[in-house]
Each structure stands twice: as C-alpha cells, then as structure tokens.
Design a protein that fits this description.
With 502 residues, the chain is an alpha+beta fold. Among the domains are: 165 residues, Uridine Diphospho-n-acetylenolpyruvylglucosamine Reductase, domain 3, CATH 3.30.465; 104 residues, no CATH class. The two termini are 34 Å apart. Bound molecules: NADPH dihydro-nicotinamide-adenine-dinucleotide phosphate and the ligand C=C(/C=C/[C@@H](C)[C@H]1CC[C@H]2C3=CC=C4C[C@@H](O)CC[C@]4(C)[C@H]3CC[C@]12C)C(C)C. Ligand L4DHV4QZ binds next to helix 9, helix 11, strand 15, strand 17 and helix 18.
C-alpha cells in the first residue's frame, strides 16, 4: 500500500471511530485562511496535515492528482515543472486545495473558468461512516456537487483531480484607469468580451478613481514592456504599484495607451500576498512610523498573508475587522459600492468578476452557488476589508446590515468570513432540501452542518459582573490593535499551536 492509501485508511478509521461515538468533528490542517473563529478542539479533529503531496502531474491529460493540504504556492511550483498551471490559482499562497474546494474561492481567471471548485474533475472522499468513495461529474455526481462549498459537512476530502492548462513564462498585465464604479463595470464587461484576455480584476481606490487590469499569458512580452516582480522584500506591494502606474498614466493624458508590465507567473498569482491586498495598511498605521517604505522592507516577513492570518487569529481580531467578499449581479454593483461607501466609507475595494460554472459544465449546480447563482451566471465579487467598530454589538449589527443589503440585491456572500444569518435566512440562500437529502443519502447527518460551521455565534454583549479597574484597563488595552496585533505577531512567530483548544 502506498503512503497516500495508508494515510487515508488511518483517517477513515478515525472518522469511523467518531461516527460510532457520535463525535461532531472538524477538519484541521494546521492553519486556516478563513477569518472565522473556529473552535478546533484537540480531541475532535481530523488532522489532514499529512495529506500535503502532489501525487502526479499528467502532461498528456493535463491533470494533477493532489492531496487536500497542498497549498497554492506548492501546487503552482509542481505543475509548472510540467509547464502547466491550474486555471484558477487563489491569490493567497497558503490557501489549500481542499479548503478552496470545500470553501468558496475565486480569482481573476474566474470570469472564464468559474470558481476553484469548477476546475476539479473528481474527488476521493471519506464519508461519515468511514467508507472511502469517489465522486466526479459522472459518478456520485450529487455528492461531487454537494461537497463543493459545503465546508466538509458531507465527508473528508482526501484526494482531488485538477484540470490544468498550458503555462507561459509571464502574465502581461495592462492597467486601464477608470473614474467611477460604473466605468469600472462597463470597462470590465467590454474587456471580458475579448477572448484573448485570461485574467481580469479591478481595484477601486475611491468613488472617482480605479483601475481595471487585464492579463494575457505569454512567453514573449511586447517589446519594451518592463518585467515587474512582487514576491521579494524590495518589490512594491501590488496595489501601491497599480495606484502609482495609473497616476503616472493620468498625468500623460486621457488618450495614452494603458500601462503594461510583464509579471512572472508566481509573482502574478500571489501579487496581493505581501500586505494582504491592502490589509497591511492597518498594521502599519498602528505599528510603526511614517517611513512606510522602510517599515515595509524591514517587517516584510510579517506582512505575508500566512503570518498575518496567524497573527490575526492569535490576537483574536476577528471580532474587530469587517472582512467580507460578496458576489452581486453586475447590474447591482454600483448600488452595492454606493451602499458600502455610505455605510463604511472604506477604500480601496476589490472587484473580481466570477462565473458560476465552468464552460465545460455550464449546467452544473453546486452547493457553493447557493440558490442565488444559476448555472453559468456572471457575478462581481466585491471585497471589502476594514476595521469595524470596537463596540461588539455595533460590529455585529454592521455585519447584519451588509447581509441584508446583499440579500436585497440578490447576491451571495463568501462563507470564509464572519456570518450572522438566522437559520431561516441562511436556508433561503442555500438549498436546504437538497442538502438534507444528500446528508441522509451519504450518512452525514451526524457531522456538524454547514450552518453550524459557518455562523458566528454572537457572544454576550451585556456587562457581566462588576467593571473592576483591572477589567476596564484590560479591555481598553486589549481593544487596541497595536497591543493585540503585536501579541498576535509574537504568538505567530513563537507561540506554537494556538488554533487548537484542549
Ligand atoms: N481568493 C479567495 O478566494 C480567498 C478565499 N479564502 C477562503 O479560504 C478558505 C480556504 O482556506 P484554507 O485554509 O485552505 O481552508 P480552511 O481550513 O479555512 O477550510 C475551509 C473549509 O473547508 C473545510 N475543509 C478543509 N479541508 C477539508 C477537507 N480535506 N475535506 C473537507 N472539507 C475540508 C473546512 O472545514 P472545518 O470548518 O471543519 O475546518 C472549512 O469549513 C476558503 O473557504 C476560501 O473561501 C480566503 C481568502 C481569499
Ligand atoms: C495581522 C494583523 C492583521 C491582519 C489583517 C489586516 C488581515 C488578517 C486577515 C486578512 C484577510 C483575510 C481574508 C481576505 C480575503 C481575501 O479575498 C482578500 C484579503 C483578505 C481580505 C485579507 C485582508 C487582510 C486581513 C484582514 C494584525 C496583527 C496587524
């Protein structure tokens, strides 16, 4: 028996043990790219951290057999050896193949290929009773579609076959400046019609300034196109670079050609990693000096999302930051952005068009699409990430307001972030009947449900007990980012395992 089969047999035996004892377990691989605060208890987890290998890359069929705990950067490194790349590579290098499939993940190629789960051909999955089954577009199709986005609540995924496409050395990226949300949407729609465009996303820096970026895969960039990297300490953070480029372009005048750079593939895919899009802005505001260029250089290690996520969780900052990725119909983006500006006033915002399914399976309906996104429909993912109010009740109510607005606009929110829906609201967005049938058919009723997994249980907001001086000082001090953030960075660097509770 090979190492993979042995590891899966071990997991299957453990799952069966939990099943027999009625233990509702969680799936844990050593980290998480979710901002939810997950109660991982040491004795109630299935540890998939050992399943971290790319088993094969088939050059002929253009597929890869990958274990779920393979991260995006490792996946890319391995497939590029065969001159192939995944059609959708999530932009944070630590996101795993299993988490990306079982959660909901998209990127700048998703307008073409759909979200990450659309690029998977088949699965090996351990069901709740410990049996190991396969699911694909043609066998156990309902399980295959149901497992996409239902957060491991139908079983533990132990192997995935990924479709790949031909790689090139560079992504040649063009920067199209825009002056309003409306223009950003119209420009994106126009550019998406060009079949040679492989990648498209946009940053709105304010209500009157933004940039739509389109990418082409190429081995031979257009002459005089500068090569630009983003992964080294001395490289610029991507959004700052984009903002500078369009400012320079604006100075040149309206009619000038869009600015262009050629970016090596890994640098393109993980261009937002350093500084976590613009999340690092907040860290700098609190941590350091006005000399941000120097600070960015010196603190580079801590400004990669892998470390930032650990720091974020270790410091317990989840209840202070508004982190939401929301997909809304294209016709509603302007209204949604206006709403966000009026209610949060937080810029920049990220726009990324996302298709519900892939062109090869346009009729597929997966759990990740909910009841909102029908088949091949195109939506715009709007990413809004900022500091929320310190008062917890206000923080929850602000999140609830965003949920209500998204519901009104017929959108869908990514479930990796905090969610506060009531059960009734949640099951309007996802197909309860289908999900419960599936859970019954595949014996998963004993596992935690997707609702149980993703909903943040509001904590007590009332003042319990006496407000002693110590309590008051503690809450004041801890409530400030420099203190809790630095503590998180310290724990991420030296604190060992803190995501697991006893
Ligand atoms: N660009 C993007 O699209 C971005 C996406 N993300 C989010 O990050 C998440 C992925 O992060 P990552 O750290 O890899 O994953 P996580 O550990 O956060 O897992 C995501 C979900 O998938 C479940 N899961 C994880 N592994 C398996 C498995 N082997 N079998 C079945 N279910 C599994 C987890 O279950 P459990 O709850 O039990 O742990 C969890 O509910 C996605 O949810 C995605 O939405 C974050 C940032 C950006
Ligand atoms: C480490 C600290 C703070 C960190 C935050 C600024 C980041 C922690 C989690 C980050 C994010 C989570 C999920 C995201 C979804 C993606 O689609 C885009 C990026 C992001 C919004 C990302 C943004 C930054 C964080 C909020 C403290 C200790 C200073």
């Amino acid at each position: 028996m090979n190492d993979h089969d042995a590891a899966v047999k071990h997991i299957a035996a453990k799952v069966q043990g939990f099943h027999d004892r009625g233990v509702k377990f969680r799936i844990y691989h050593g980290s998480t790219n979710s901002t939810r605060t997950s109660p991982y208890q040491k004795d109630k987890i299935i540890d998939t951290s050992q399943l971290n290998h790319v088993l094969t890359v088939d050059k002929e069929k253009k597929t890869a057999l990958v274990e779920p705990n393979v991260s995006m950067d490792v996946l890319l490194r391995e497939t590029m050896k065969a001159n192939l790349v995944p059609p959708v590579v999530m932009e944070l290098p630590g996101i795993t193949v299993g988490g990306g499939f079982a959660g909901m993940s998209g990127e700048s190629s998703s307008f073409k290929h759909g979200i990450f789960d659309c690029t998977i051909n088949s699965l090996e999955i351990v069901l709740a009773n410990g049996s190991i089954v396969h699911a694909s577009h043609t066998s156990n199709q309902d399980l295959f579609n149901g497992a996409a986005g239902s957060c491991g609540t139908l079983g533990v995924i132990t192997l995935l076959e990924l479709q790949l496409i031909d790689a090139k050395k560079y992504v040649e990226l063009s920067y199209h400046p825009v002056s309003s949300t409306k223009e950003a949407i119209e420009k994106s729609e126009e550019l998406m019609r060009d079949p040679s465009v492989e990648y498209i996303d946009a940053i709105l820096f304010s209500s009157t300034s933004g940039v739509v970026m389109t990418g082409h895969l190429t081995d031979a960039p257009t002459p005089n196109t500068p090569i630009q990297t983003f992964l080294r300490r001395r490289d610029p953070w991507f959004y700052i670079h984009a903002q500078r480029l369009i400012a320079r372009q604006r100075k040149k005048g309206e009619k000038s050609e869009p600015a262009r750079v050629a970016i090596p593939l890994p640098d393109y895919f993980f261009r937002y990693d350093r500084g976590a899009f613009w999340g690092g802005l907040h860290a700098f505001k609190y941590f350091m000096t006005p000399f941000n260029r120097i600070t960015r250089y010196l603190l580079d290690h801590f400004m990669h999302t892998r470390v930032m996520f650990h720091a974020f969780h270790a410091a317990g900052l989840g209840d202070q930051t508004i982190v939401q990725d929301v997909a809304v119909p294209l016709s509603k983006v302007e209204e949604f952005v206006k709403y966000l500006d009026d209610s949060l006033g937080s810029w920049p915002l990220w726009l990324c068009p996302v298709r519900g399914t892939s062109p090869s399976h346009p009729d597929r309906q997966s759990f990740s699409q909910g009841t909102r996104v029908k088949g091949d429909q195109l939506l715009m993912n709007v990413g809004v990430w900022c500091m929320g109010p310190k008062d917890y009740a206000k923080f929850v109510s602000m999140n609830r307001d965003i949920e209500a607005e998204v519901e009104k606009l017929g959108g869908l929110k990514c479930l990796y972030a905090h969610a506060y829906y009531t059960e009734e609201e949640f099951w309007k967005i996802y197909d309860r009947e289908w999900y419960e049938e599936l859970r019954k058919k595949y014996g998963a009723e004993g596992l935690p449900s997707v609702y149980d997994k993703v909903i943040s249980k509001p904590r007590e907001t009332g003042d319990k007990g006496k407000k002693t001086l110590v309590r008051r000082v503690k809450s004041r001090v801890w409530g400030t980012w420099p203190i809790s953030g630095l503590y998180g960075v310290y724990k991420a660097a030296f604190g060992g395992e803190y995501l697991l509770k006893r």
